User: Fold this.
Amino acid sequence: MAADEAADTQLMLGVGLIEKDTNGEVLWVWCYPSTTATLRNLLLRKCCLTDENKLLHPFVFGQYRRTWFYITTVEVPDSSVLKKVTHFSIVLTAKDFNPEKYAAFTRILCRMYLKHGSPVKMMESYIAVLTKGICQSEENGSFLSKDFDVRKAYLAGSVKDIVSQFGMETVILHTALMLKKRIVVYHPKIEAVQEFTRTLPALVWHRQDWTILHSYVHLSVDELEALQMCPGYVAGFVDLEVSNRSDLYDVFVNLADTEITIAPLAKEAMTMGKLHKEIGQLIVQSAEDPEKSDSQVIQDISVKTKEIFTNLASFSEVSGDGGKLVLNFEALKQRRFPPATENFLYHLAAAEQMLKI
Assistant:
């Protein structure tokens, strides 16, 4: 048990504090242990206090070069000991994806800072969670790391909502994820972008891979460079300018207008056929069943996905090179699948690194 707790607690990387003072200046005030200038600038950009439009976003999260960031922002009430501060953000960086866990913990840290006006208490709580996985306080609430199972974080979004928005077109998203393509999602509201993007990896549940998620990206050089190093991803933007950046996506989702566009260069790999229609119908039928929960819908899609992989394995062979499965293209041809199905299975084998080099 102790080993489990230790493994869980070593996930946090750092904590920071950003303040907006009564003159409207936004400053990086404090952090523990330390941070790089690049990461500090990124977090200042993500924190809504530097935003011109003055909208307050209580909680945002995202990823940059395998570091997850979680930012909770609050307005300072007149009753607080913080007299020269109008708003502040608590920033947590971590190795894991778990928005609910870190939202709960940053809220407790916010309450502490409002009460004491000094980062000392926050640092004590951070170290307690880092070493023991727990911080307890009478007035600010308690936090227990192991209450937040990662599977719960994976299942927190709603696949049913996605299907109610996009219907049969959801199969485009499923196909793009299966083929490890680059998906860009746009909506002017960050909350809508985050809710939608965090749910997409669940359509390929067999991988349980949320490292592909970049739920809050700005069109800045360092962020785009980091993003373009990833082979496939789901990236969220609030700047419509991203729609003109066709170098960034294979599939573009305009969430505000409920439109999905496949980029010209991705059209060949993403050709839809009978198999896709079957998958699309299964997704829609399952999602529209009022008796089924989101996790049951994910399970239904996962069963169908496994069926496709079993099919793929039947015309693959074990290579002499370390015994991994590689596609036997002749065997695939002999099955005389419809062209779109054959094309999809070939590209799926490529995505799974099953092609002979």
Notes: The chain has three domains: 12-151, 155-270, 274-352.
